[in-house]
Amino acid sequence: MNTKRLRSLLKKLDSQNPAVRKEAAEALSEGDERAVYPLVKRLHDPVAGVQEAAMQSLIKIGGEATAYMVLPLLRENPAVRNMALLILKEICPVHLLGGLLKDRDDDVRKFAVDLIADTGDPEGVKYLMEVVNDPNPNVRAACYAAAGRLGAVELTDQLLRALDDQEWVAFSAIEALGRIRAEKAVPALMGALKSARSDTIKLGILDALGAIGEKRAAELLYGWAKEKDGFVGEAALKNLIRIGLDEEMKDLEDRVAELLDSPDRVDQQLGVKGIRELRGVHKTMRLLDLAGSLEQGIPEEQELYEEIRNTVISFGCTDDLVDAIASEELRYRGKSLAIEIAGELNCRRAVPELLRIIESPLRDLRRAGVRAIGEIGTIDDPSPLLRSASDPDGHVREAAVMALGGLGDKTVLDDLFELLEVEVYPNVREKIMGALVRLDEEEVRNRLNQLSQEARLYLAALCEEEETALLLTEDTEPPVRAQAALTLGRFGGKRVENRIVELSSDTSPEVRRSAVRAMLKLGCCKPAVISLLNDEDEWVRFHAIQALAGLNGEDLSKHLIKGLRDNAVTVVLKALDILSEFPSREAVQAVSELEMHPSEAVRKRAREILGR
């Protein structure tokens, strides 16, 4: 900021008009150290808006000089002091605060400790050591809290000595020991827990032991969880879960399950964790019911949903899971999850219930049931799935035909062919063809003359046998031949390569494009690829350039250079991209000629390659 503007703003800062002062204070945020003192004075302005503007500008200017000038304001009235704290929290380096720890004013020392914690700077720990035994309890409590926030493990011994301090000061030390996870403190905390009279201290110690997570405390907390009532017993249970349960603590299962009914999500997560560790299979229904109550799209609830899902999966295919599927009481989303898990676990004992589910009046349950049966892939009679394949809902039909394809039961072939003719949705028709291919591709070939063009197109894309793809390359419809040619790229072999070369002369440019793309996949047929550089179709030439890049040969650069002279910009750009990886002298010369090309895109790419 130039001097003239600075002087103008400083003059406005003393205006009688509050709006002018506020505007000047805001503008001075772009200033330097020369603006700091005038802005500091405006923190005493009678108008709150001016104070706020001055405070924000001081934060934006920042720097040690600003912090140094704001520090004395900690001795001002509460309003100014609070603004000073906000400024210093944002800009003050920790070493400037150390001097305040020797201040005679107890409040100033406490503010300094709080600010040291706010910096988050580990260097602050050495300053805390100066006040760990401060005569003022407020300062000591702030020091212990700051030690926890800064992870000051080196202050563990001092924090342990503070267990004998005044209750509320000791509580700060206990919290800090938990935050820094001081394993060394566990025996002392266990001893203090046994002798503590105050519930506040007991709760603090229990939380600290849970945060530290040391197994040595588990037995003590197990006893307290069983014997103590009220908040203390509940805290012992929660922190025992944090440390970790084992199956010998099975007698706590009902108490753990009660946490699922808590309105607090953290408690519910602890309940799920505890049930998983206790192998509480018989709590499956309660877990799924909780899952059914959770909202999708809320991150915390989705996280809990996944934890429940993983817990039920860990139990395996159980009678309790099957009972949940059969339950009329379970919430809809919980039942859907049970069905989904049964499919994922290949839970065959659930099949009878799943067969009942797919007759449900609820569409989404029918969908889930059919999908699960498809994943399990084992039923004695395909009739229920055939009925589902005629369901009013397209998603149910889609899942049903996919399941039928996975059964391996060829008795449903005729039914699937009939469904192919009457199905209204293309995506479901495609899945029907996929099922037919999985069941008996040879039979599908035998009925080729019964299939529509669309069905043949699906078959060309989905077939798994070379014979089918070769047969479809002779189809009367170009789209079918084109898809079949592309599919041949999955197979390879001399017979396939010869047929692809033949297809590269097809009358349809769509087929020729697919043929050259198949050549690219197989890395074959170099003479045919080179000849396609002269094809009348721009996109055939484009794919031919691509295919050339995957072929070897000393003359490769020569043929790629030919692509630079193509009349289609797309072909030229593709040739440029490939030639940039083969920087021969001839290629560089050919690229340099393109600096005068009519297309700006070509000229720009050529200059990039040439480094100009």
Structure in a nutshell:
This protein has 612 residues and is mainly α.
Commentary on this structure:
The protein has 612 residues and is mainly alpha-helical. 42% of the residues are buried. The protein is 68% helix and 0% strand. Among the domains are: 463-536, Alpha Horseshoe (Leucine-rich Repeat Variant); 553-612, Leucine-rich Repeat Variant (Alpha Horseshoe), CATH 1.25.10.10. The model has no long low-confidence stretch (mean pLDDT 92). It is flat and about 100 Å long.
List key phrases describing it.
0% strand; flat; mainly alpha; 39 helices; 612 residues; Leucine-rich Repeat Variant
Count the DSSP helices.
39
Number of strands: 0
Corresponding CATH architecture of the domain at 463-536: Alpha Horseshoe
CATH topology tier name of the domain at 463-536: Leucine-rich Repeat Variant
| Beta-strand residue percentage | under 5%
Shape: flat
SSE order and pairing:
Blueprint: H1 3-12, H2 18-27, H3 36-42, H4 48-61, H5 63-70, H6 78-91, H7 94-97, H8 106-119, H9 124-128, H10 137-149, H11 156-161, H12 167-179, H13 186-195, H14 199-212, H15 218-227, H16 230-243, H17 253-258, H18 265-277, H19 284-293, H20 299-315, H21 319-326, H22 332-344, H23 351-357, H24 363-376, H25 383-388, H26 394-407, H27 413-422, H28 426-446, H29 453-462, H30 466-472, H31 478-488, H32 494-503, H33 509-522, H34 526-531, H35 538-549, H36 556-564, H37 569-579, H38 585-592, H39 600-610
Helix pairs in contact: 2-4, 3-4, 4-6, 5-6, 6-8, 8-10, 10-12, 12-14, 13-14, 14-16, 15-16, 18-20, 19-20, 19-22, 21-22, 22-24, 23-24, 24-26, 26-28, 27-28, 28-29, 29-31, 30-31, 31-33, 32-33, 33-35, 35-36, 35-37, 36-37, 36-38, 37-39
